[in-house]
Design a protein that fits this description.
The protein has 11 helices and no strands. With about 280 residues, the protein is an all-alpha fold. The protein has 2 domains: about 130 residues, Voltage-gated potassium channels. Chain C (Four Helix Bundle (Hemerythrin (Met), subunit A), Up-down Bundle); about 90 residues, Helix Hairpins. The two termini are about 20 Å apart.
Length: about 280
């Protein structure tokens, strides 16, 4: 059998490692990136604890700079390894990657005592790194598709709940009255929403036997608020079928993923995929 080997360029190799996870190098890169993201989130959390930050500020700062440099290199490599860099730069993950990288560099621009308050707020942008985790949770895409498929049913259900809350709030206003805290219909509707969602702040409570009976019915009805949307989404998750013969290969031109194992061209733009 004659073997034909195509020489892979350095850009294609970088693209294969960074954007795909079907190769050992790609899997290793994803694992390293996941560990780095989690470490960066832990550093942000520890830095917010005044006693820990006071004692280990320099170490936390060094750790942040190491992670920032790593993310910067990753961001640059993602840009140079695709044919249309702006496609990535202005994509959801591209913006998240940028927001999670720039705060440390802004410390060079915002200097002086008058900038300290703004600087502390900007450093919180590093929390956006947690959104980078979504890229590596395969089930999130399936859940997103199920949510989109069930949005019409959920919207109708929520509209029904709003109507029920308006009716029950009005009824409670008539039953309890102003002397028991139900001073107006909007406040009574607020109570109905709090009770129906089983939150129960307790700032308003029915005093009459009839009002307490209605409240009990609303509390029991509240379980349906949780059960019905969950059932709708679960049903869509069951019905949704993703092909098993797809991989993580990403198109270097349009960044579309989920191509078939033997695909040569991108199903979205027709560009040649990496070998």
């Amino acid at each position: 059998m004659e073997k034909t080997a195509k020489k892979i360029s350095w850009r294609e190799k970088i693209h294969e490692i960074i954007y795909e996870a079907d190769t050992p190098e790609g899997k290793l890169f994803d694992v390293i990136l996941l560990i780095t993201i989690i470490a960066s989130i832990l550093l942000v959390m520890l830095e917010s604890v005044e006693s820990i930050d006071f004692k280990y500020h320099d170490y936390l700062n060094i750790g942040e700079w190491i992670i920032t440099i790593f993310f910067s290199i990753e961001y640059i490599l993602r840009i140079i390894s695709i044919k249309k860099p702006l496609k990535y730069v202005f994509s959801f993950y591209g913006i998240i990657d940028l927001l999670s990288t720039i705060p440390m560099y802004l410390t060079f621009i915002l200097v002086g005592s008058h900038s300290l308050v703004a600087l502390r707020a900007l450093r919180l942008l590093r929390v956006f790194r947690i959104l980078k985790l979504a890229r590596y949770t395969g089930a999130s895409e399936k859940l997103t598709l199920a949510m989109r498929a069930s949005k019409a049913k959920i919207s109708v259900f929520l509209f029904f709940i709003v109507i029920v809350c308006i009716i029950l709030g009005t009824v409670m206003y008539m039953v309890e009255g102003q002397e028991n805290g139900f001073t107006n219909i909007p406040k009574s509707i607020y109570w109905a929403i709090v009770t129906l969602t089983t939150v129960g702040f307790g700032d308003i409570a029915p005093q009459t036997p009839l009002g307490q009976l209605i409240a009990s019915v609303i509390m029991i009805l509240g379980y349906a608020v949780i059960a019905i949307p969950t059932g709708i989404v679960s049903s869509e998750l069951t019905k949704s079928t993703l092909n098993e013969d797809v991989n993580t290969q990403s198109c270097p031109n349009c960044l579309k993923e989920k191509h078939k194992d033997n695909a040569i061209y991108c199903y979205n733009c027709g560009s040649v995929l990496n070998p």
